[in-house]
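Supplementary Note 3. Input sequence used for the single-chain structure prediction.
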Amino acid sequence: MPSNFSRRRLLATGAGVALGGAATAVATSAQGATPVGASSLTGVREETRSLDELYEAAIAEGGKLVLYQGGDVDSQAAGVRAGWAARFPEVELTAVVDYSKYHDVRVDNQLATDTLVPDVVQLQTLQDFTRWKREGRLLRYKPAGFSEVHKGFKDPEGAWTAIAVIGFSFLYNIQAAGANAPRTPQDLVDPRWKDAIASSYPHDDDAVLFLFSLYQQKYGWDWVADFAAQQPQFARGSHTPGLAVGGKQKTIGVGTSGSAVSTSTTTKWVVPESAPFMAWGQRAAILKQSAHPAAAKLYVNWMLSEERQKASFNGWSVRTDVTPNASLKPVWEFPNANVDGFPRFMEDRAVIERLKQTFALYFGEVKGDPSPGWLGLHPGA
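The predicted structure, written as discrete structure tokens, is reproduced below.
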């Protein structure tokens, strides 16, 4: 296997060199920032080719792309697969969904064994992107629109950029919760909700762990003990609380994503007025040893395009010049979203390990197989 992967990478590297040159033009951004396409201190220029031009380059390269996407179940990539196939039918996208904490070590192992599969990594494990940058693993590249990305959602040198905002909070069944629906995390420990809560394990998912750590900091360890006394139904995968609430098995789901502008008449995802919740920019990067660099560039440009950003399901964009929903302010303007706190949290692995073991004392050990299944060493190959 290693020799085959090496040969493929050598061929792809040659193609990447041939396709790497791009004309640049200077255009001033709407906010008067650094002109688009102008050289930065690192010499990386913002992409000026159109999506159609990038598409032609990806076809010429061989028409293939492999994406490792963080997530809970394979169906979470269905929208991306369908949108890509409709827009770029001559470039085959293989999107592999797995927990980010498995994808990152999978990539590390592939790099160590010269068997790299993905071209693009799109993960929740934010600390990996800063580490991979230090190790020289990432291609420094600035897709079109990079200058408009919120400063906290991009590497200034172009090693990575966030392509979507994800938020975690709690939700509830509107009818079952009634007039006394929970408004803050403190409400979750009201005795009336005993046996009515589903939650993802905080010690199995670092984003959920951060959310629970915010709750603990706000309300103390007594809150954690009181939450455990509610006998919540824990499961692996941050999608599971929504499934339990949507299926009317439970009234409340904790530690899950949702939409701040949802028009659902059955469930409500809560953005508290002042109590904590959490949100972050899901980072994406092109691996320097990518076998399909032209297709990888097409992907990050497409994901960052106004078209895709305006279609954000939760009303938030990573770009400062795109407002998916006029009724909702940008996520970085919510101080209780802790947008800057999550990247710092993810860098301190010692604190994370202590928190995981502490929450295990309150909630028990994580049980069950991973929701995406066991994908092995080289999925998507």
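Residues 166-279+337-363 form a domain with the D-Maltodextrin-Binding Protein; domain 2 fold (CATH 3.40.190.10). The longest strand covers residues 161-173.
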